[in-house]
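User: Show me an example of a complex going from sequences to structure tokens.

Assistant: Sure. Here are the input components:
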Amino acid sequence: MTWLTWRQLRFPVVSVYAALALIGVGLAVSRPVRGGFGDQEFPYLGSLLAVQLLPAVLGVFWGVPMITRELETGTHNLVWNQSVTRSRWLAVKLGVGVPAAMVAAGVLSLVVTWWADPIDSAAALETERSFEPRITPLVFVARGIAPIGYAAFAFVLGIAVAILLRRTVTAMAVTLVVYAAVQLAVPFAVRPHVLPPVEESVTLTARSIAGVQTEESPNGYVPQSLRVLEPAGSWVLANETVDANGAVVRPLPAAVGDCMPAEGTEPPTLADLDRMRECFARLSYLGYRQHLAYQPASRFWPAQWVELAVFLALSALVTWFCFRRLRHLS
Amino acid sequence: MIEFHLDGKSGLSPYQQLVRQVRHALRLGLLSEGDQLPKVKDVVADLAINPNTVLKAYRELEHDGLVAARPGVGTFVTGTLSGTSLAALAPLRQDLRRWLAKARRAGLDEESIEALFLTTFRAAAKEDIA
Amino acid sequence: MTVLRAQGLGKKYKRRWALTGCTLDVPAGHVTGLVGPNGAGKSTLLGLAAGMLEPSSGTIEVCGGVPGSGPAQLAKVGFVAQNTPVYANLTVEEHLRLGARLNPGWDDELAHERIARIGLDPAQAAGKLSGGQRAQLALTLGIAKRPELLLLDEPVASLDPLARREFLQDLMEAVAEHGLSVVMSSHLIADLERVCDHLIVLVDSRIRLTGDVDDLLATHRRLTGPRRDVDTLPADQRVVSVRHTDRQTTVLVRTEAPILDPSWDVGELDLEDLILAYLTNPGVERPNLGVVR
């Protein structure tokens, strides 16, 4: 059975691994050095996209056809009538396909993680950055070991959808949509619950303020929201001003207007600075504080492990469903 | 050794045809005591017929005392249908020829001759049973 | 010994019953013909027996086990589906390797000998074979697996007359040599007449007739005589079909006893007449003779 499964899967597996080898070589010769990343924009984004897309590609082009091609050509009638149960048939398909997918995604992700390490390290040190830190959702899914879990999940998802829908093209489309939906839902609906963000209450001072957002009104610029300095390399979920009761304040009380440097004076005068200091002191006295919620950079690897575990658990669930449905397949 | 054949238009089931062909061969002296009948496997492979059909035919012949199965060897002819009747065959055929000539002279075509023969033959057979 | 036993077996697709109320005993060591119009449920019955389908009602037992219930059960039953599927990108030789690896009782010598005799090139991709060659390959897999029961869904439909004859010869040889039981569906009654000694007739998702072919032929008679009402027939004569002209009545009856009524001209039936009578008269049970009144 393993022989047959390998015989059927070898072409897609070999082509994907060959493509990965090419990407790997390409990245190896172009690894950025600390200092100037200006010309690395394209490979950075390209490799990011490659790691993000690979699991979906494996689910759609390895997982789905593995089942639908048998059902569409009727060869399931042949193979299910040898002395091998369907469960074994599926188990072998998963046993060959899932590791192959996990290894492919794992290798690509680790190569890309290694390649992008200089950029990621730099991004982790800067607060005002040109590259996103690796814990932010878009980069997180393309680094470390999480893609291994994505690949396993996408592959078994492809199999499950194929078992349900039986048609190659529809199953491919549905697999892609469901996988994308899960990928969108997990960072915002699941990750915060599994790994609650760090919550901080920051005193408002002239030093801690990173920026003010204002809106134009007949009375001049009205401050809408304040932003305090964020910890370097973190994924910030909330950076908002709260009042004494902890409720989010927006727009800010008019008093904040005094805390702003006067327009057109650069650098601010000493009198300005005194005024601002007093203003922030008054705000703090009134109970206004800045609420900060974020995932610190140090959480990257724990979060990766959690992500891997979550997706492997999801894969196990989908696999169980596959075996359950398989009995009723004809 | 004889070779069996099946006639789709005979109106007889395959097993009846096999029995008839053996009896026919015995009667015409094509098979005589000690001769072996084709092996079941060979008949099956040759005619593409069900082995049970061949077995059934051989069993019927055995029951009639015409053949005997030797386990592991084959089925052999033990009885005979020819003997005296073979000698009587020639004059009977002569009579039949004469009768046919007579029927033609009376204006009967082949179809009418066949119908006449068959109806008379069947009626006589029925009377024998009764 | 029973090789296939069904009790009130039924299969429902969405709203339609493809097979219903099927109660059946197929004896071992026989070649059973499965006949019926298209859509009568032949493939469904075979699929249920192979374990490819799950029954919607009733039970089915094949070679003493639930179809498809495990490797041992699967090894006992061979099934060649209607379109004789093979893996297009695998070669003939690779198919034999597949059979060898997936079946504990695989007869490699038989398989290779058969492939050579049919004249299939082992290196040829199965996708390039003709319909007939594909069927031969699928059947080779079925036979070389050495099952106790071989289920064949229209195996000869795509074969030319010569290939059909060779196929049936091989099949019968396997039956003779290995004591294989076979259930095969076919529209070619002439073939069935040669190879089958047991018969199942399916009409409208139901079993219309089943039994030993010789018994069936021995118990069915065609009665021809002056026009009369079939209600006057003895109770032990079950009417299968009736036809009237203005003077004559032709009745097909099933009866164990001899026909004693002298007004009937009694004729025998061949298998084709018998099957056609049941196919064209679904469920006739002593119809009224409306024309006479």
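The lines above are the inputs; the final block is the predicted structure for all three components together. The radius of gyration of chain A is 26 Å.
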